[in-house]
Structures are given as C-alpha cells and as structure tokens.
Amino acid sequence: MKAIIQRVTTAKVTVGEELVSSIGKGLCVLVGISSDDNANDVDWLAKKLLNIRLFEDPAGKRWSQSVLDQQLEILCVSQFTLYNKMKGNKPDFSRAMQGPDAQSLYQTLLQKLGSQYRPDMIKDGRFGAMMQVHIQNDGPVTIELESPVQSQQDLDKLKRANEHKAKSKQGQGESPLS
C-alpha cells in the first residue's frame, strides 16, 4: 500500500457539487492499493498513519506529535493512480488492485483506523468516483509511505496466524457440553 500524506489546515472532497467529506486540521491521505497488498499492508499503514509525527508539540518542538497526540482528523482518498508505470507517455495502472478487491482492502483500512482511534475522526471520499480534492496544505508538508514488500515466509507466517486465530475463535464459541 502506498500513501501520500499531506498535513493540512483544511481538506474536503466533492463529487460534482456534492460535499462528500471535510476535515479541519489533520491529514489528507491519498491511498493506493497494489495487486500484491493484503491485511498486513493495511495493518502497517494504519499504524503509521496514526503514529507518524508531523505536528509540533505545545512548546513548538517540530516533528514530535501525531494525529493521536493532538486528536486530529484524517481524510482518506482512494487513488489507484499511485500505482502507475509509464509506457512511453501513457500511464499504465496494471499494478493497481482492481475494483471490489481494492474497495474491500480500502474499507478495511478505514475500519482499522477507526477501531484504533475514533471512527468519527476518520473521513473518506467516495471510492471509484471522479472526486475533487481540495486541500490547504500546512507547511507544506507532504510525505510518501509504502508498506514493505513481504517475503513468502512472512506470508506463510500470516496464514498460519490467521488459521490459529480462526481455530481459537471456534474453540471459544463451542459449549463445553458439546
């Protein structure tokens, strides 16, 4: 997963004339999902977005506080164009995850951010829509993040952990008399 993070004083997303979401001070995050991304990438990005220190503390020390520290909002905007490669002068988006799978991972990211923070502080655009993103960049501060590539060993470990979780949940749900 890739994120372009912009520290903003205000941001909003419109579709046509309709205001979809708006925030005050916080982060506007453009989110790209590659065809290789999975739940590990969502976890990694959610943790980074909530904890990245892009704000001053009350004493004026730069780069010392996060969204969590200051209780600020995050506006996420899905943007498949972040996973492009150029073929001559034309962009190719074949590295981007397609449709329903990308939407599912994007929604998982929003849910993860809300569950680890406050759901009312997480806003988003409209997945798949032609959006207009209006920001007032603060600083300007713009940071690019990309989740690390996972080895096959990491993927196997994740699969085993998920299987173990599923078995544990099944065991908890069963009656001792059955």
How would you describe what is shown here?
The chain is α/β, with parallel strands linked by helices and 178 residues long. It contains four helices and eight strands, in the order βββααβββαββα. It has helices spanning 39-51, 67-70, 99-116, 152-173; strands at residues 2-15, 18-23, 26-32, 73-78, 85-87, 90-92, 122-124, 132-146. The strands form two sheets. Strands 1, 2, 3, 4, 7 and 8 form a six-stranded mixed sheet that branches. A two-stranded antiparallel ribbon has the order 5-6. α1 (39-51) packs across α3. The longest helix is centred in the C-terminal third of the chain and has 22 residues, at 152-173. The protein starts with a strand and ends in a 5-residue tail after the last helix. Residues 174-178 have low confidence and may be disordered.
What share of the residues does DSSP label as strand, in percent?
Answer: 25-35%
Number of strands: 8
Judging from the principal axes of the Cα atoms, what is the shape? globular
Note the run of SSEs as H and E: EEEHHEEEHEEH
**Major beta sheet summary:** 6 strands, mixed
Cα(first) to Cα(last) distance is: 44 Å
- The count of helical stretches stands at 4
Radius of gyration: 19 Å
Low-confidence stretches: 174-178
Give helix % range: 25-40%
Q: Average pLDDT value?
A: 92
Assembly state: single chain
Q: Decide which structural class fits the backbone.
A: alpha/beta
